[in-house]
Structures are given as structure tokens and as C-alpha cells.
Structure of tRNA-specific 2-thiouridylase MnmA:
Amino acid sequence: MLKQLTKAKKRVFVAMSGGVDSSVSAALLKKAGFDIVGVYMRQWAPPILGKECIWKTDRQDAMKVCAKLGIPFLTWDFSKEYEKEVGKYMIESYKKGITPNPDVMCNKIIKFGLFFDRAMKGGADYVATGHYARTSLGNKLFKAKDKNKDQTYFLYTIKKSQLSKIIFPVGNLEKPEVRKLAKKFGLQNAEKKDSQGVCFVGQFNMKEFLKMYIKSKIGKIIDVNGEYVGDHDGAFYYTIGQRHGLDIKNGQGPYFVVRKDIKKNIIYVGREKDLHSSKAEIKNINWIQKPKKFPALLDVRARYRAPLIKAELKKDGTLNFKKPERAITPGQSAVFYRGKHVLGGGIIC
């Protein structure tokens, strides 16, 4: 695809995270003949990270890569937007008793919202990121070649009209190939570990983070048969399917969170079999390729890294699974596929 795009020299703003994927993306684009500008987006740095935030190291790594490649480097401070649109969204979601997906919101609001718009206003013909995904000139989104690294689950909110302006240079590569290329290009971050945790702050203890914003409140843990089995310190700290962190000492576990009542501050627990559901309600659906008719038989991923399952989606957003699915969690995303194509997705109610 890169050869098709570079018949005339085009300008690309590359989102540089300091990681190997975005670095190799920039290197590949320069090699292909594009006019490249590297952009580091400063994230929100909540107090839990302390004074020395990871963004400073990541920014420095991104800057070194741009210097090595001989391309301009910019820093765009989106920290306030991160806090308001992604951080607060996450905190408010937990307060309501749902489990948000900040990475989806980060892509929607920041990378393919603020960054995309500012790049286009700044003279970009395209934007590029280090995501493992693929696009076509026909405004379609496809799964990545590397099945273990595919990130399309987090990208379904991209607008169809944007796809012709987005490039994913590593989408046709396996991760080991990316690291090999990084060494070939002489990039100092070739062996840098992949970032883990929430998109805007990195890895941290989610419960400790939430305790900074949501006051703990002792409540009961009740099993699906109505029996009291223990206490918890706040129903909003827990998510559907969670096993660890439950203070149950009757020796009859393992128990899993199967339901929550935020108003009464009660957590209901059960066994593995109690986690499975046959249907879900989906809202805020974004279509990249909308099915021609409903009900539509689709492949669905109900959480990141979960296997694709067959389900029938009705026009009103009701999703009926062909086989019961594990741990359907309100606030998470259900993403729709047909073969390698990403059709769209929405939020589980």
C-alpha cells in the first residue's frame, strides 16, 4: 500500500509514543519516500505516578528516534484533554458501576480526534500510528497480520471517512519482524518492552488509582444462592469476571464477580458457569461497514483477546450469541467482524 501512496511525495504526521512499533512505522514511511513529521502527544500524569512520570522517558525515546531518522520532532500537549475526556470518563464509569475501556476512548478522542484534526490542519496528507491493523484504499479496516498483536478491537470508533487518511505501517508485519527492522534501522529502542496498562498513564494498580477519586465503602458479598460470604470495600472497584481481590474465607472458592448492585453496594459472586450469558445489549454503535440487512450474523469479540464468537445482531442493538459467552461486562466494547474485515462496534450496556 505504501508504494501506491508515494507516487507523489506526501506529508505524514506520525504519532510517536517512544515505543518500537511507532518508531519502525516512522522509519518505514521515510524509507518509502514520505515527508515525515514525528509527533509525541503528552499524556495526563495523575498523582499515582509520582513526580517522575513515564511520559518524560517515552518522549525522550521518541525524540532520539526522530534525530536518528533525521525528521522533525514536535510535542503536542494533550494532557488536559486526556484528563478530561479519558481519565474522568474512566473514573465516572467506575462510579456508575461499569467497566470502561480507556484505550478505545483514547483512540477516539485523542489519536483519531485531536491528533488527526490538528495534523490535517497542519498540512498532513496522512497520519500514521504504530497500531497493528490494516487499511485499504477503499476505506476499509482489516485485522493485522500478527493475530497475537491485532489491535482492531480498540480501533472500531474510527470514522469511515478518516480511513483513507490513516496509515498503519506495521500492520502487515509480525512483532519479531518489527524488532528486527528496528535493529536494522539502528533504533536505540529496538528491545524496549511493550507498554502495558492504561493508554494514558501506563501500568499501575487500578484499585489504588480509583481510591484516589472514589471513597471506599464497606459492603456485602453475596453468592448467587443468596448466602452472605464476605465483605468488600466498594462495589465500584470490582469488575465482572474478577476472581482475585475478593475477601472470601469459606474455603469453597474460587468465586467470580457475576453481578453488582451499585446502589446497594453489593457484589454477587458465583462459579465459572455463572459467568456465561446468551445475549447482550449494545449501544453507541459505530459502523465502518454497516450490514445491508438485520438481523446480521457476525463474528464478535466481546473483550480484548477474547476469541471471536458467532452472534446475531438485531437492528435495536440486541446481540444474541450462538453459544453462551463468558463475562459479558457493561462498559466494555463488542466489536463486529466478518472475516478479516472490521465492520464496527459498540458499548455493552
